[in-house]
Write a structure and sequence with these properties.
With 253 residues, the chain is an alpha/beta fold. It contains nine helices and six strands, in the order αβααβαβαβαααββα. The chain has a single domain, classed as 3-Layer(aba) Sandwich (Undecaprenyl pyrophosphate synthetase).
């Protein structure tokens, strides 16, 4: 073990020692940003190698969350806007995402796809649906895998689903207007039944949500990390948890 690694290990232990159960967020959501920029910073022309490097970090993140006592983790792997990328970049990325999902299944986690699966290639959609069916009975940490996800589309899909549900009962628009509230919409989101994220982490230095969990993040705390996703370390994760635990959450103000 080198000196630098030893220093990081000691620092990790110091951070862990300062964390109490009350400081641990119930739901952590992560925007895994910077794979392409990491590849370019390393002089790698094939950006899929950046995506592959970033994919290797997903299982580590989930394990860190589990060790910390987090109950739900949401990982944004692909936005609906990303589906417009060139075919020669998108196809390898889909294979990488499929591999990540299978690895999470094999690792024993409860996998919940979050996104518009109808927008995805058939093979990718099948992998995600299988992951949900094969793991829904598993106890413990829930891993929301956000693929083909867009916050505005999620809200539109929720409203559409709500209207269809009421129409199937023979209710009119006027009937719905009389009873509609935020809980009705929340019951039709991709994350229905799960707690909203307490902490949202974004890597790569960007300080914006880019449409991620727009509805659910109304009261979330945010942590922006300068590191590109492939360089994100357990130390960075623990710093994010420490920062969250030190904040006084003021809901609605």
């Amino acid at each position: 073990m080198g000196v630098r690694e030893l220093v990081y290990r000691l620092y990790e232990r110091r951070l862990e020692a300062k964390l109490t159960p009350a400081m641990i967020p119930r739901h952590v959501a992560v925007i895994v940003d910077g794979n392409r920029r990491w590849a370019r910073s390393m002089g790698i022309k094939d950006v899929s190698r950046g995506h592959r490097k970033g994919a290797d970090k997903i299982s580590e993140l989930v394990a860190w969350c589990s060790e910390a006592g987090v109950e739900v983790v949401t990982v944004w792997l692909l936005s609906s806007d990303n589906l417009e990328r060139p075919k020669d970049e998108l196809e390898p990325l889909m294979r990488i995402i499929e591999d990540v999902v299978q690895e999470l299944v094999d690792s024993g986690w409860n996998i919940n796809p979050v996104g518009a699966l109808d927008l995805l290639p058939d093979q990718t959609a099948r992998v995600l649906k299988y992951a949900k069916e094969a793991t829904s009975h598993r106890p413990g940490l829930i891993v929301n895998v956000a693929v083909g996800y867009g916050g505005r589309r999620e809200i539109a899909d929720a409203v559409r689903s709500l209207l269809q549900e009421h129409a199937s009962r023979g209710a009119s628009i006027e009937d719905l207007v009389e009873v509609l509230d935020v809980e009705h919409i929340a019951e039709h989101l991709y994350t229905r039944g799960l707690p909203d994220p307490d902490l949202v982490i974004r890597t790569s230095g960007e300080q914006r949500l880019s449409g991620f969990l727009l509805w659910q993040s109304a009261h979330s705390e945010f942590y922006f990390c300068e590191a590109y996703w492939p360089d994100f370390r357990r130390v960075d994760f623990l710093r994010a948890i420490r920062s969250y635990g030190a904040r006084h959450r003021r809901y609605g103000s």
